[in-house]
Amino acid sequence: MKKILHISKYYYPYKGGTEVVCQDIAEGLPAYQNKIICFNNENKDKIDIINGIEVIRCGTFIKIASQPLSFSYFKKLKEIIQSWQPDAIHFHHPNPFVALLILSLIPSNTKLIVHWHLDIFKQKFLYFFIKSQEHRLLERANTIIVTSPNYRDNSIPLRDFISKTIIINNGIDINRFKIREGDNEHITTLKQKYNNAPIIFFVGRHVPYKGLKYLIEAEKYIQNNCAIIIAGEGPLTPQLKQQTKSNRVFFIGKISEDELKCYMYAADIFAFPSITKNEAFGLALAEGMFCNAVPVTFKITGSGVNYVSLNGITGIEVENSNSIEYAKAIDTILSNEELKKQYAKAAHDRVLKLFTTSQEQIAAQNLYNKLFHK
Prior knowledge:
Layout: E1 3-7, H1 17-27, E2 33-39, E3 46-50, E4 53-58, E5 62-64, E6 67-69, H2 73-84, E7 88-93, H3 96-105, E8 111-116, H4 124-140, E9 143-146, H5 149-154, E10 165-167, H6 183-193, E11 199-203, H7 212-218, E12 227-231, H8 237-243, E13 249-253, H9 257-266, E14 269-272, H10 283-290, E15 294-298, H11 305-308, E16 316-318, H12 323-334, H13 337-354, H14 357-371
Parallel strand pairs: 1-2, 1-7, 2-4, 7-8, 8-9, 9-10, 11-12, 11-14, 12-13, 14-15, 15-16
Antiparallel strand pairs: 3-4, 5-6
């Protein structure tokens, strides 16, 4: 049985988009022996068994520019490579500290898969020092996975390596969003809680690139009756609450997975106002689409967001950061029930066709089989 060492910045129960993808692939490929190495969010080393897979967590003593640093990581990675001898390393980018270690430790006969989730563009000063290392990593890679054609075609670092890139869409676990006993009653209760007004729903971290301030600004221009529900929290939460003057906007904080599902099904519109390529794909967007909530997005050049939802087919996208146009898009959908149903069905069907965990796992399985000539 071939052995795969998966390298993610963190791992379950941490639930970032990259970490979810890493877990889905590792757990979805039982024909291979899988092991995980990642950072711990505490300053101590730890080994877990998660759903039958060994997870080595290296203690973190500091985080600089989103990069965790660990005293033990080099030693642990070296030990795994030398003693366990993986046939392939599946590395989730970005993670520049670990990329440097991989280049120094990976044997010549070990396959390297670079899973390109995101360009490094926010930390411009740091990137100046690691750009050449990143290029060497891509040169060494046997295969580069990109999560959407939009991202591949607009990523400057990938331009020299298009010939060895493949697209594997991120996927959602649709079983999490199946309607179960009692859900319909709870969905009805949620709608009644907001006086049966059309619901515009947002969920995510309250950070700048999520564009929440533009959604709150758009509320002033929405002509239709509605309730804007904002789930999640983050460093911008107090500022956003202060910005909000309307009694149509409700902050509900963090919610459980069951509550999230019911809110998505209760929603008429899934607000996804992200504004930068930090939003590389949009798993939450796909989740909302699966639950028949019509997405309204901004146009983000090079982001997978506008590949997940197609303008005029599954929802509406508008000029980036334009709150007035965002409000008009919402009014267009809320004013036309037939159009809303058309978008909702197309959105749901697109997720089923392209963005499920099972499809993601099959694509990864095919890639591994090809690498090992199975």
